[in-house]
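Researcher: We're teaching a course module on how sequence relates to structure. For the next exercise, students receive a sequence and then see the predicted structure as tokens, so they can try to spot secondary structure elements on their own. Here is the exercise chain.
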Amino acid sequence: LAYQLCLASLMVKGPAGPVLEGQEVTLECVDTESEHNMSNVHFEKLSRHMRTWYRLDLDEYNYFYRRCFYYDVDVRREDGRLLIVLPRIQTWSAGPYRCVADNATEEMNSSSMNYTIPVHYMREVSVYRGSSLTRYFSGMQDLRVQLGEDVELECSTSASESPQYFWAKEGEDWIVPSSKLKLAQVRDMDSGQYTCTAQHPTVSSLSKKRTISLTVLPEDAAWYETTTGRIALMTSAAGVALLVTIASMTACLCRRAKQRKSKGPIDDCSQKKPIYRNSVESLPSTAGDKQPLV
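Model: And here is the predicted structure for the students to work with:
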């Protein structure tokens, strides 16, 4: 892929095929008319948050910004060529990039066409039971339901393009081309391993799978044996623990505040006063005078 970047025939040449997240990518700045010396040309990347173009070579002005945000960009000048190497491309480092001459005016730079690396990715697949507490426990591997329940499973993921979803059951030859799988009034025969596959629409090698085990409990099984019941118990226990903690802290604070309010003046007994020999508060002494001992 090549995109013309300025009126002076400078171009950025990138990968010819799809780029997967984590791959090494090399960009090259080329001159189609051989009018530029590549030593007087540099790469720039647009900061989407700052809305500013930053030079990517190690000049003094942008050094700290580049080391903090573009530390994975390696700018190379080899045999008169200007290259950028990204060892492990990520979505946030996809661009846009442009190639401009050092002496180009701002007007020439503003007319440059930008080049963004088409990075394809797909995150891990999450499976949850539709409209229930299991939506917040997407890491579950085993779903336990009561006999006769209606079960709806849904899988989702994040990808560079909207993926295609397929449901299949181990040992069965049917496939459901949807992100949702609905089972009405489940029976014992519905127990088994169900797999959701997410397939990237344009990159066939990019796909993710998630398998969940469905167990149909006997009709007389207790409600807390189901996955929903267990999650409800866990949530209730956490709520009770939180309430107990709050109540304990409140009682402690109230007790301390009450003690502060009920605290009286300083005890005068702590002050020193004369003690005589013949007084009740006298101390044993061998002295024969009647002068105060203190």
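Model: If you want an answer key for the exercise: The two ends are 102 Å apart (CA to CA). Confidence is low (pLDDT under 50) at residues 1-8.
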